[in-house]
Amino acid sequence: MRVGEELPPLEIPVTRTLIVAGAIASRDYQDVHHDASLAREKGSPDIFMNILTTNGLVGRYITDHLGPRGVLRKVAIRLGAPNYPGDTMTLTGTVTAVDGNTVEIRVIGANGIGHHVTGTVTAEVPA
Length: 127
Description:
By secondary structure, the chain is of the alpha+beta class. The chain contains three helices and five strands.
């Protein structure tokens, strides 16, 4: 890998099932992640993805690219525009640093209303 290298984009359909399953899998029982009417009562147009699901998808994006020997060492992300059902999140990444077997990758996940997630992933890629 080299600085400036771009990872191929990954499009993830944001389905109601993905949002609810991610919330359940991460034991996040907040109603805004599974109950549309309660989410609307709280000012959201629909349920939305939780940060733990997003974190997992970012990790998957990087490990799918690095292969089975790649090891995530740090995932530092920040959420922006919510991921609502019916949208698509497209993950993109750019290598920003390489130090021996360690790489740093800037990740952006964009949807129809903006950047859902931005952050940096540090990983080891054994020789």
